[in-house]
Amino acid sequence: MDKYIxxxxxxxxxxxxxxxxxxxxxxxxxxxxxxxxxxxxxxxLSVGAFLQVKSTGTPINVDLFTWFSIGSLKxxxxxxxxxxxxxxxxIITGVGFLIHLYSIGYMKTDAGYGKFFAYLNLFVFFMLxxxxxxxxxxxxxxxxGVGLCSYLLIGFWYTNPDYADAxxxxxxxxxxxxxxxxxxxxxxxxxFGSSAFADIFPKAGTAPxxxxxxxxxxxxxxxxxxxxxxxxxxxxWLPDAMAGPTPVSALIHAATMVTAGVYMIARxxxxxxxxxxxxxxxxxxxxxxxxxxxxxALTQTDIKKVLAYSTVSQLGYMFLGxxxxxxxxxxxxxxxxxxxxxxLFLCAxxxxxAVSGEQDMRKMGGLKGKLPITFIxxxxxxxxxxxxxxxxxxxxxxxxxxxxxMHSTPMYVIGVITAMFTSFYMFRMLYLTFYGxxxxxxxxxxxxxxxxxxxxxxxxxxxxxxxxGGFIGVxxxxxxxxxxxxxxxxxxxxxxxxxxxxxxxSSTEITLMCISVLxxxxALxxxxxxxxxxxxxxxxxxxxxxxxVDLSYHKFYxxxxxxxxxxxxxxxxxxxxxxxxxxxxxxxxxxxxxKGSIEASKGLRLLQTGNVGFYIFMMVVGIISILMYMVFKV
Length: 634
Description:
Layout: H1 7-21, H2 28-56, E1 60-70, E2 73-81, H3 83-106, H4 113-132, H5 136-154, H6 161-192, H7 197-200, H8 214-228, H9 237-240, H10 246-255, H11 260-267, H12 269-273, H13 276-297, H14 303-323, H15 327-354, H16 372-385, H17 392-407, H18 409-434, H19 442-446, H20 453-468, H21 483-488, H22 493-498, H23 506-533, H24 547-553, H25 558-605, H26 612-633
Antiparallel strand pairs: 1-2
């Protein structure tokens, strides 16, 4: 299997090249087939790599070539497939294939069909490069590549200025985080003399590497994760990224790209374990992000915006788990979130497809009978994200909450309350969309229909995964063996050895589970009473809302705040530099030299009269002047 690893990223790259070059000449059916087929074959190879790692327990190292050498620093273009990256390969290629298949039906009428599949393939290539890299430099190439593809896909419908602005916003905010990430990589190279994981992680914390400023390095790496994984304060790009086609939302902003920050920290776990201050910062930022994202999602009326802020909140949970030392739990939630959030986004796309592009839930309702497959699968996804057993989200979320309880009781309490918010806003979305009477136009109602098989088959597969995916991590308190924890143990071995927290008793763990499930059920019931029994519909934008509701609906004015304290001062500063420093200073100095030369030449030009007699006279004057100079000099 080792000799085929390089094909896993190469196949999607080949799809990008073929579909990119032939986007205007190839038939849509060929484009859709090729784009999906290359990712499917990559998935098959990823399964083979996973089975090899699972059976042997030995990572696969593939050193393709030495990329560059500078002094003692050698950077190889090399891949690493261990337990962590093997699972990420399955997520990227598996969920990626389903989204490609879904896109065949969803994008069939779009004029940029070929370009869209080319961009999707390119994104999968860079994401695979990110998780396969055996050193931070290769990881950073993939890291920047997915940022580029995110820009291309968010702004896919670039003729709409708002969509183009959303793409630029995502690109710029990610660059802010990436600056911290690359500085952190430079520091790692400076202290360890290498960027390779195999050189850094075994040495970390050992003499003479015990006094390295791990807090500084990990905080810089965390800044990169904050940008890529949409944590406070760099989270506002993610909701705006819903401007892209719905498959983009599912692939980039649910299953893969936004989890890159979680993967990077999980990969660098020993560095963060050696910096407990950083872990505490990670936990606080994650919990704050989870709360803010959930509070905003409570009042949104755009179905994709609800899911976007839900993604922000769930990413916050993952970072809470990382900060609490639950590296396995955080990665477990990456896995389950990939299933149920991709499912929810694709279900939202199916709904939008059925109602002729409408995204406002206030203009939906009554779709339960018209879209039975979409409804059932979306119900499964909603149950999973709400943490209702035995769906996938229950196991991963409760593992994070259990570690939060060991880390800090207040954090656990806030985490449970946030989980209640999650259950409420998700069932609010479900009830507003599928229950009651249809509130759209008569024309929309006339055209209501279930999506084609190319769209519903991925929904069914993801729904099955959202049900069964959690069983890979059933805790011992519920009679399981937590297969995922044992499988990932070699990756987190050094961090586990340094852990000082006492494990919870089975009775305490079950009690915590019951509390979170009870909270989710209470929120579910309250949403049912409000939006089904009482048939409440959120007010229109023209009507007045209560102050707190209005604050949440306007996303706590984060964008307006950033606009006031960052964008406008920077605009004013740029105007100052343009008009004062550039025009008056730099340009003024250069232009004055030119004007001085011109004016001086105008005076000297008067001496060139063309009169021979005048020239003889000037020669005589010159000769006399030279003689006088020589006389007086002596």
